[in-house]
Amino acid sequence: MKIESARLIASAGSLEDCPASGQAEFAFIGRSNVGKSSLINLLTETRELAHTSGKPGKTQRINLYRINDAWTLVDLPGYGYAKLSRERQDEFNQTVSRFLTERANLKQVFLLMDSQIELLDTDLAFAHWLQECGVPFSLILTKIDRGSKGRLETFRRELDEALAELGLKPTTIHACSAKTKAGRGSLLQWIAGQLPTKPKKKGGAPKLNLGWMKRP
Ligand code: GTP
Ligand code: MG
Predict the structure, then answer these.
(1) What are phi and psi of 122, to 5 degrees?
(2) Are 32 and 78 contacting, i.e. CB atoms less than 8 angstroms apart?
(3) Residue 143, CA atoms < 13 Å, CB-side half-sphere
(4) Which end of the chain has fewer CB atoms within 10 angstroms, the N or the C?
(5) Nearest CA to 178 among 30, 20, 35, 29?
(6) How far is CA 110 from the centre of its chain?
(7) What is the DSSP letter of 189?
(8) Ligand 1: residues whose CB is within 6 Å?
(9) pLDDT 10s per residue in the chain (216 long)?
(10) How far is the CA of 127 from the centre of ligand 1 (A)?
(11) Would the CA dihedral through 173, 75, 35, 176 be positive or negative?
């Protein structure tokens, strides 16, 4: 899929403040600093559409990006940012969980996991919660440029074991690097497969007329 346009349409503090898009939406969630905003920039081939930072806690609002005037990417605040007060963390969790469970056009949630650190129980607990809520989710392993091939294979093996043990069933599992662009094409292709197909004829589908067929 070619990205022809990408623009921020809203930066909202709550679900109520998010404008209805009427189009398919795909949201990125994960621990602070896992690379959610970097992945938005990777997919849209922009440098600063989404703001990134080496320090966790950068994204603090629900940011909606309209892509090709046809679908929407959603960048969410990360969880587990220890420097935030307990109260503020609870507030974030409440905002994020309401968006993920109540947003009407949310097609898929991508839960990001950092492939360069150990598999985190908090990430597995988040996946478990999504599944319990009946929210369709996929996993994306991030920062795959950083370690060796062996490191990624080990992470993937441990992840597969944990998913089986916990009975977790993500729709798909992707692996990406915002640095080398690895995984960009296949992730976009997967998203394209989730979008409603456009009518093939220019000017829309032919008018439906059921009266023309006369069989002998
Ligand atoms: P919050 O907004 O705090 O929740 O973080 P985030 O998940 O949006 O992370 P962000 O995209 O801001 O990236 C965090 C840090 O990880 C930045 O320093 C990025 O440059 C770095 N980073 C993100 N993706 C990659 C990647 O694929 N490879 C490498 N090497 N670094 C990455
Ligand atoms: Mg961010």
Answers:
(1) -65, -40
(2) yes
(3) 16
(4) C
(5) 35
(6) 3
(7) H
(8) 30, 32-38, 52-54, 56-59, 77-78, 142-143, 145-146, 177-179
(9) 999 999 999 999 999 999 998 899 999 999 999 999 999 999 999 988 999 888 888 888 999 999 999 999 999 999 887 777 888 888 888 999 999 999 999 999 999 999 999 999 999 999 999 999 999 999 999 999 998 889 999 999 999 999 999 999 999 999 999 999 999 999 999 999 999 886 666 677 778 888 888 888
(10) 20
(11) positive
Which amino acid residue places its CA nearest to atom 31 of ligand 1? Answer: 143
Q: What is the pTM of this model?
A: 0.91
The answer to whether the beta carbons of residues 72 and 65 sit under 8 Å apart is: yes
Task: Please choose from 39, 51, 53 the residue to mutate so as to test ligand 1's pocket, defined by most ligand atoms within 8 A of CB.
Answer: 53
* d(C-alpha 64, C-alpha 76), whole Å: 9
Q: Give the tokens for residue 14.
A: 């709550």
Checking DSSP bridges between strand 62-67 and strand 6-12, what pairing results, if any? antiparallel
Q: Could you say which ligand is closest to the alpha carbon of residue 52? A: 1
Q: Which amino acid is at 199?
A: P
